Amino acid sequence: MPIIHDKEFGKITIRRSAKATQVKLRVAPDGTLRASLPVYAPIFLVKRLLANSRAELRELLSDSLPDTTYEPGMRIGKSHSLYVVAGSQLEVKRQGQKIIVKLPANNDIYDPIIQREIRKVAQAALRLEAKSYLPKRLKYLAENLNHNYSTIRFSHASGRWGSCSSQGTISLNIALMKLPFELIDYVLIHELAHTKHLNHSPAFWAEVERGDPNYVRHRRALKRENPTI
């Protein structure tokens, strides 16, 4: 089957079908995009649909990503760790750099309800870390690379690591704190480059490379990471 490559969504597999009456895009089980189109329809129709549906596709991809499974002893962000102790009733709380789960003997930590409670506290911990680290790091990189941005915002309900508006507002996913520091820098440099180029043109990627000469390797590594919490 033919394949096209998109700078944001990566590989897109194209399947022609005699039953297809229009061009459609969907998320495959492996998390990639697949396009179906009539037998004689030109490929540019897929590219046009892709260009007009980016926001919807981001939401679809976000919904298809699995949530993090929280396990005893795992590291959460840069400075928090998960501890499970016996308790008479379920309780999840952050205590310093520890996320403590008090778990009754007959309860399973992998129960969806318990995972949801852990996720709430983990989200709060990641937000604290993000607010402490990311603004200072973004400011440092912006000054060194001669970029200007207006404000910084934090989010978590998105399948995207970051975004930059036409007004220069940079939004960052608090899940960035799960990444190695070099990948955090890549995302910040990527969004700062958007303050000069609101596209993914060759000029944009040249600007990214100016700040991160290893951006190709970092971009590839980032695709293997999951921005959900």
> What is the mean predicted local confidence, pLDDT?
91
The N- and C-terminal alpha carbons lie at a distance of 34 Å
The tally of helices reads 6
CATH homologous superfamily of the largest domain, by name?
Answer: Metalloproteases ("zincins"), catalytic domain
How does the overall form come out from the CA principal axes?
flat
The total number of structural domains is 2
Helix fraction by DSSP (H/I, runs of at least 4):
25-40%
Taking the sheet with the most strands, its summary is: 4 strands, mixed
Structural class assignment = alpha/beta
Order of helices and strands: EEEEHHEEEEHEEEHHH
The residue ranges in which pLDDT falls below 50 over 5 or more consecutive positions are none
Instruction: Estimate the strand proportion.
Output: 15-25%
CATH topology of the largest domain: Zincin-like
| Sequence of strands across the biggest β-sheet | 1-2-4-3
CATH architecture of the largest domain: 2-Layer Sandwich
Rg, alpha carbons: 21 Å
Structural summary, described in words:
The chain is of the alpha/beta class and 229 residues long. It has two domains: 3-64, no CATH class; 75-222, Zincin-like (2-Layer Sandwich), CATH 3.30.2010. It contains six helices and eleven strands. The chain has helices at 44-52, 54-64, 112-145, 181-193, 202-211, 215-222; strands spanning 3-6, 10-17, 24-27, 33-38, 75-76, 80-86, 91-95, 98-103, 151-155, 162-164, 169-173. The strands form three sheets. A four-stranded mixed sheet has the order 1-2-4-3. A hairpin with a 4-residue loop joins strand 10 and strand 11. The radius of gyration is 21 Å and the shape is flat. The model has no long low-confidence stretch (mean pLDDT 91).
